[in-house]
UniProtKB/TrEMBL annotation:
Binds 1 Ca(2+) ion per subunit. It is found in: Secreted, Extracellular space. The keyword Hydrolase applies. The keyword Aminoacyl-tRNA synthetase does not apply. CDD domains: Peptidases_S53, Pro-peptidase_S53. PANTHER family: PROTEASE S8 TRIPEPTIDYL PEPTIDASE I CLN2, SERINE PROTEASE AORO, PUTATIVE (AFU_ORTHOLOGUE AFUA_6G10250)-RELATED. This is Subtilisin-like protein. Transmembrane segments: none annotated.
Length: 629
């Protein structure tokens, strides 16, 4: 099954299927009582977009290095018109509401983008319309939802024209906005739950080598990353931080004074979404890590934009706010109602966007899947315009998140690493995202240690001394695996099938989805990164670190292409898996990502579900991309 067929087909199954047995209430929510039948709700029908079945092929046309249209990215107007729901879709849904359901014409509203239809009806009318039972649900934080977790039904002739109906089965993750892919996993060599490890003596750590303290110089040496921007303001790169995750300018200066003096006094350019404030009280860990690494690697000649996403009172997912701010066609018209979202297509778009958060488990579940499908489609549409989305693959091994959630036979998630099926994470599982796993220099591998992966020397400048490494061995860190929502795209078939045929453990077929989109795509160092946080130097990391590191590599490649009069790379995945990029990765063959009472997947030659294709060799990768038109 192709990716695009899965995108369309899943929505139809969800919307037309009649539940044979009661489904459990979504994790984290409690069903309180039947909803008041006389209360009005805005029932919203997200209409099926045109050409979604062609999205993958349209992206390949501008992203496959062998295509004559490589790099000829679309304008936002072209994207909007190509994917606008057809007149047949609009007429079918309106006709059903008007004639079959008896909704008065003045109560049926279509938003200005033509992709959402809304009717204001009572709970009783909604139940009759959808053949569903509505309840009031709550979570431990006091949030309340009205919905019908056991499902709803649409006529067959209508269902194919509707992606999802809200509010119905989608509740979001209870008590959660967005969680960083951070340092609370024991797999990263320190105690689970520890947010950071303070460095008591920075000088001693600087002398100890890159196996115990990774600095900017370590990263430059590991990835052959000698970069000075040459394209000026034409090149753009951004990083996303969500509500409650903030930074302190004084931490940036503390870090830059030691490792990047030309950046002292510099801060990223703020792009506030839904009132996001990077200086409010909150958690310092993720933004400090992202911003210091990206500004440190890219230097003062390359501006970094900070997408600081606030939280609306009604938005269902934090990614909705980001995507709506980038593309107004994703955002409902405010007159009709937009779940509290007000920034609709009014924010600048950067060539590269780095995301170090996980937003949802990748489960084939009607309470989750339709929204993930819609968000992934939107990411693909934005990628058509030349944006590269980079995201952390996560730190839970083959389980979901640092809480190590696995899927039990009854269809529920349980934390604490129980025996069960593997669970991926979104957005890394979206095939239009470049998912980044994490590696680390093996303990004690700081001087004159060789591996079978090569014989070249790497020169690392650690503070005031030089340490020669003979291709230092790397061991992999979680997370990775196979999506339960998205089919494996053609561009990674060969690499992934090689792993499944020759190296994959012989787990039962129920443990993971062998036909799913496989990730991560690439990897970079994830532990132990030296950063400044809360006025002191600490060790931090996770795929939270590897994503912004690889995003910086992509930004530097874009800089070279733009300076040569070429386009940014845009959707980069087909090129990464192409023969043209062979030899531009440092293959990682040691390590695994255990979880769910298993050893997970082992790293192996070539692509694997732990380190992807490997870590980047920037100079070789840049040279390859400069050969493309």
């Amino acid at each position: 099954m192709t990716l695009t067929h899965l995108l369309v087909g899943f929505a139809t199954v969800v919307l037309t299927g009649v539940t044979a047995a009661p489904r459990p209430v979504p994790a984290g929510w409690t069903r309180h009582h039947r909803a008041d039948p006389d209360v009005f709700i805005p029932l919203k029908f997200t209409l099926a977009q045109s050409n979604v079945d062609r999205l993958e092929s349209l992206l390949l046309d501008v992203s496959d290095p062998q295509s004559p249209n490589y790099g000829k990215h679309w304008t936002h107007v072209q994207v909007k018109e190509a994917f606008r729901p057809s007149s047949e879709t609009v007429d079918t849904v309106r006709g059903w509401l008007l004639h079959d359901a008896g909704i008065p014409v003045d109560q049926i509203k279509l938003n200005v983008n033509g992709d959402m239809m809304q009717v204001n009806v009572t709970i009783a009318e909604a139940e009759a319309l959808l053949k569903a039972e509505y309840y009031v649900y709550g979570d431990d934080d006091g949030a309340a939802r009205v919905g019908c977790h056991e499902g709803y039904t649409l006529p067959d002739h209508v269902a194919k024209h509707v992606d999802l109906v809200w509010p119905t089965t989608h509740f979001g993750r209870a008590g959660q906005f967005a969680r960083r892919s951070g340092t609370s996993s024991a797999y990263f060599g320190h105690e689970a739950g520890a947010p950071k490890i303070p460095i008591k003596n920075l000088a001693s750590f600087a002398e100890s080598g890159c196996d115990t303290a990774v600095t900017l110089d370590c990263l430059r040496a590991l990835y052959n990353f000698d970069f000075t921007p040459v394209s000026g303001s034409k090149n753009t790169v951004g990083v996303v931080e969500f509500e409650g995750n903030v930074y302190m300018p004084s931490d940036l200066d503390l870090f830059f004074e030691t490792y990047r003096p030309d950046q002292v006094g510099h801060t990223p350019t703020l792009i506030s979404i839904e009132g996001g404030n990077p200086f409010a009280a909150g958690n310092l860990g993720e933004p400090s890590l992202d911003i210091e690494l990206m500004m440190g690697l890219l230097g003062s000649g390359q501006n970094l934009s900070l997408y600081q996403v606030g939280e609306t009172s009604e938005a269902q997912e934090p990614a909705d706010e980001l995507l709506a701010a980038l593309d107004g066609a994703y955002c409902s018209d405010p007159v009709v109602g937009s779940e509290g979202i007000t920034d609709c297509g009014d924010k600048p778009r950067t060539n590269v966007i780095s995301i170090s958060y996980h937003l949802s488990p990748d489960l084939n579940d009607p309470t989750i899947s339709p929204e993930l499908q819609r968000m992934c489609t939107e990411i693909g549409k934005l990628s058509l315009t030349g944006i590269t989305f980079v995201a952390s693959s996560g730190d839970g091994g083959v389980a979901y998140s640092q809480a190590a959630e696995c899927l039990l036979p009854d269809g529920t998630l349980e934390a604490g690493n129980p025996a069960g099926s593997f669970v991926g994470q979104f957005p890394a599982s979206c095939p239009f995202i470049t998912a980044v796993g994490a590696t680390s220099v093996a303990p004690g591998a700081s001087v004159n240690i060789s591996t079978s992966t090569g014989l070249f020397f790497i020169l690392i400048i650690a503070k005031c001394r030089q340490v020669k490494l003979k291709n230092p061995p790397l061991f992999s860190l979680p997370e990775g695996g196979f999506s339960n929502n998205f089919a494996r795209p053609d561009w990674q078939q060969g690499a992934v099938q090689n792993y499944l045929d020759n190296f994959a453990p012989k787990y039962a077929s129920s443990i993971f989805n062998r036909s799913g989109r496989a990730y991560p795509d690439v990897a970079a160092n994830g532990w132990p990164l030296v950063i400044a946080q809360g006025g002191e130097f600490t060790l931090s990391g996770g795929t939270s670190a590897s994503a912004p590191i690889f995003a910086s590599v992509v930004a530097a490649i874009n800089d070279a292409r733009i300076a040569a009069g070429k386009s940014p790379v845009g959707f980069i995945n087909p090129a990464l898996y192409s023969p043209a990029l062979l030899g531009t990765f440092n293959d990682v063959t040691v390590g695994s990502n255990p979880g769910c009472q298993t050893q997970g997947f082992p790293a192996a030659p070539g692509w694997d579900p732990v380190s992807g294709l490997g870590t980047p060799n920037f100079e070789e990768m840049k040279a390859a991309f400069l050969e493309f038109q």
